[in-house]
Every structure is written in C-alpha cells, then in structure tokens.
Amino acid sequence: MRQTLLQNPVFAMAAEQFDQVADFLNLPDDLRERCKWPKRFITVTVPIRRDDGSTEVFFGHRVQHHLTRGPVKGGLRYHPSVDLGEITALAIWMTWKCALMDLPFGGGKGGIACDPRTMSSGELERLTRRFTMEMIPFIGPEIDVMAPDMGTNEQTMAWMTDTYSTHTGHLVPSIVTGKPLNLQGSSGRARATGHGVAFIASNALHQLGLRVDGASAVVQGFGNVGSHTAYTLASHGVHVRGVSDVNGAIWNDRGLDLTKLRHHVAKTGTVIGFNEADAMDPELLLQQACDILAPCALDRVITAENAPLLRCRILAEGANGPTTPEADRILEARGDVFVIPDVLCNAGGVTVSYFEWVQNFQHFLWTEREVITRLETMLQKAYTKVTGFAKRHQISHRTAAQAIAIQTVADVKSSRGLFP
Ligand code: NAD
C-alpha cells in the first residue's frame, strides 16, 4: 500500500538515502519507521474556471512529514511532474534540512500538478486561492507554513496570504514566507537560497585551497535559485561561463556578463538568444570543466551516465535531489568531486524563511545586512558541522548531513514519546 501510494523515483531516492543513514546510525527499528514516514498526506482536488470558460480539476498535495520539532515548513511547487511520491520525498528532505540548520520546524512540501507556463495570471491566482482554501483546515502559522518553490513565487505567496487572511478576518503574514516586501516579506529572502549556495561553494573553494576570485562556474537553471547563485558568484569574481534554463544552454569562455544577461532574461523570459554567448547542448553543459557546477533546476540530473563525465571540482546542489544514489556512489569512488549536498547547500532559503516567520511574529523587520549576516553565521556553522562529521567518520558529506539531522529528529521523538 505504502509503496503503491508513493511510487516515484524521487521518493525511492529519499527512501534509499534514509535507509542507508539509518543503518549507519544503527537506528532501532521502531524509531526508524517513525522518522521515515510522514505524519500526514493531504490530497485535494482544485477545480478552477479557465479563461475560456471551461472548468478544469487539478490535483494538489501537501505532505507534513514531521510536527515533532515545531510547525511544518516547506515550499509549494507548480509543475506537471508533481505527484504524491515526489512531494513526499521533498518533504522528507525538508525535515533533514531544518534539523541540520537547527530550525524549530519539521519538513513539509506541497505541489499542484499543472504547467504554470501555459496558464494566465488570472488562472494561477484562482488555482492558488482555491488550493489555499482547501488547505485551511490543515495549515496555520504554528502548524504549517508554505513558501515558494519551483513554478511559484512571491506573487503566489501574496495570494495565499490574502486568501488565508480574508478567512481569518485580519492580516496573518506569518501564514507563508517568501512574501513580497510590501506584505511583510523579509529583506534578502528572494536571493537567500542562491546567496547560500554561493557562500557555501566559496567555503568549499577555500577548504580545497582554491581562490574564489577567478574561479569558474556552470549553473543549471536560471530561476530563483540559479540566477541568484550566478549573480552572487559573479559578485565574488567567479567567472560564470555557462547557464541553462528549460529552453537550452548558453556558454561564454570568458564568463557571461550577468548584468546584461539579467536584462535579456527580463525582456525575453529565457537565457536563449543572449547575443554575448554561444548556444550549447544542455547535457554537455554539465560536463564542462569548471571549479563549481551548480545544478539549480530539477532532481535526478546527475546520473550514473554523466557522473563519470563530470569535470567540476565542486558539485554545489542548489536544487533538491539533483544527484541519484547511483551517481553518488560513482562520485564517492572517484573521490575528486567535492559534493555539497542539497540539504546543506540550498538551506539558505528555509533559513531566511525562518527569519521572516520570526520577524512576522515580532512585527519588527530586520535590515538586509542583519539577515545576511545571521544567514552566513548559521550556514558556516552547519558547513563546519557536516564537513567535520564526514571527516571523522570517513563518510560522504550527504551521509554526514543526513546523519546529523536524522539523529536530531530521532532524539526529539525519543524525548517526547510515541505521539509525535
Ligand atoms: P524556479 O521555478 O524559479 O526556476 C526553475 C528554473 O529551472 C527555471 O529557470 C527553469 O527554466 C529551469 N529548468 C526547468 N527545467 C530545466 C531543464 N530541463 N534544464 C535546465 N533548466 C531547467 O525554481 P527555483 O525556486 O529556482 O527552484 C529550483 C530548484 O531549487 C528546485 O529543485 C527547488 O526545489 C530548489 N530549491 C528552491 C528554493 C527556493 O527558495 N526557491 C530553496 C531550496 C531549494
């Protein structure tokens, strides 16, 4: 029953990683089961009126993995591939990320199976508002707090805030994070994930004895995470030579002018056609020689096929789940690629989401400098913890990061008893 419900390759990945780490930790069987399986699976139908007058029914999901250490926290994704198995895997990874960063949250994830690129703004608004209405019995600032993910953005969060607040009768900004600044969003939230990826990748360069200024990078995906990763790296003097999006990849040997590229993307909606770069096969982009390769788009893009062909020194996982377990084993055996696992590398987003949630409760907004300084302190601490643990136990960074997190969750479950 469990396997049928969650049949999905991304869930299979998260489950395999968990089993491996639970073996490493010698987690007793009862705790193992309780840490692995989500507390709640919520699936709703979301009927909306399309612009042509027809009615279409979408399927939406929210998985609340754990409420043991606090409310559930995690993004909302709009993508055609969304299903319960994928969302469950992403919720599980969110739990490990929050525990690793020592945030008082459990992991959650939501998603609607739809293609936002083919929908008008009006249709997306109706979809978001109806989904939020369906979720009202299950969410709240102390229960479950959503945020943007692939295919959603701060406008989506503004519609969710408004729908929830209209229901309660007063403004409740703490119901979601990643809101626009004029709705009590946090300074620095939009760039937080990409800033974190670049910050952690720079730490790794230092640790490997390489210079940040003059290093080279390739970034897959040019949405929220990819674009801010690229901008931040470039602001530290890194030459971002190649980037891609869903439409294709581009390359410039001398490094892309990201200010010009930003204008090009704002005008055309894609990196393709940028006149200061050549087109490149998107798969070949991943195999170019560089110091930092940052996959910031989809899951399962580093596979058994291309892992032997990677020529990066650092693999900085901006996306969730970009590396399959088979590819992980190949990279571990190679030993020449410094992998920064997703739960550490892209944790900047949820960390600043936590700051936003705290600010909303305090009704007191922090400056961008305060946000970024606190973010870097917390990321630095987690980075040191993970790399130190991996070295001490002679295990991969991914196993180390998840082991620290799973033990944290297991300990709280043991303290609280059988209910949570
Ligand atoms: P987004 O929707 O803003 O951007 C996604 C980007 O990926 C777009 O540029 C899109 O064109 C590109 N893309 C899609 N298919 C592609 C393909 N086949 N090849 C190359 N590029 C492709 O999404 P996002 O918020 O930037 O999220 C990206 C990843 O980062 C996801 O895995 C998400 O779960 C993860 N993540 C996001 C955040 C956040 O704060 N937004 C935080 C942590 C992790």
Could you characterize what this model shows?
The radius of gyration is 20 Å and the shape is globular. Helix 4 links the parallel strand 3 (72-78) and strand 4 (106-112). The chain starts with a helix and ends with a helix. The chain is built from 15 helices and 12 strands. It is 47% helix and 17% strand. It is of the alpha/beta class and 420 residues long. Strands 9-8-7-6-10-11-12 form a 7-stranded mixed beta sheet. It has a 5-stranded mixed beta sheet with strand order 1-2-4-3-5. It has 2 domains: 2-8 and 27-176, Rossmann fold (3-Layer(aba) Sandwich), CATH 3.40.50.10860; 192-345, Rossmann fold, CATH 3.40.50.720. The protein has helices at 2-5, 9-25, 29-36, 84-100, 121-135, 154-168, 189-207, 224-235, 258-268, 282-286, 325-334, 342-345, 348-362, 368-393, 397-416, and strands at 40-49, 55-64, 72-78, 106-112, 144-148, 216-220, 239-245, 248-251, 278-280, 290-295, 312-316, 338-340. Helix 2 (9-25) packs across helix 15 (397-416), helix 3 (29-36) packs across helix 15 (397-416) and helix 4 packs across helix 15 (397-416). Nicotinamide-adenine-dinucleotide binds next to helix 8 and strand 7.
What class do helices, strands and sheet pairing give?
alpha/beta
Under CATH, the topology of the largest domain can be stated as Rossmann fold
Helix content: 40-55%
Shape annotation: globular
User: What is the CATH top level name of the largest domain?
Assistant: Alpha Beta
- Average pLDDT works out at 97
Bound molecule types: nicotinamide-adenine-dinucleotide
Strand content: 15-25%
> Measured on Cα atoms, how large is the radius of gyration?
20 Å
**Biggest pleated-sheet summary:** 7 strands, mixed
Overall number of domains: 2
Kindly report the spatial arrangement of strands forming the biggest sheet: 9-8-7-6-10-11-12
Number of strands: 12
Q: Report the span from N to C terminus.
A: 22 Å
- Assembly of the depicted chains: single chain
Architecture per CATH nomenclature, i.e. the level-2 architecture of the largest domain: 3-Layer(aba) Sandwich
The run of helices and strands is HHHEEEHEHEHHEHEEHEHEEHEHHHH
**Count the helices. How many?**
15
> Can you say what the CATH homologous superfamily of the largest domain is?
Leucine Dehydrogenase, chain A, domain 1
Parts with pLDDT < 50 across at least 5 consecutive residues? none
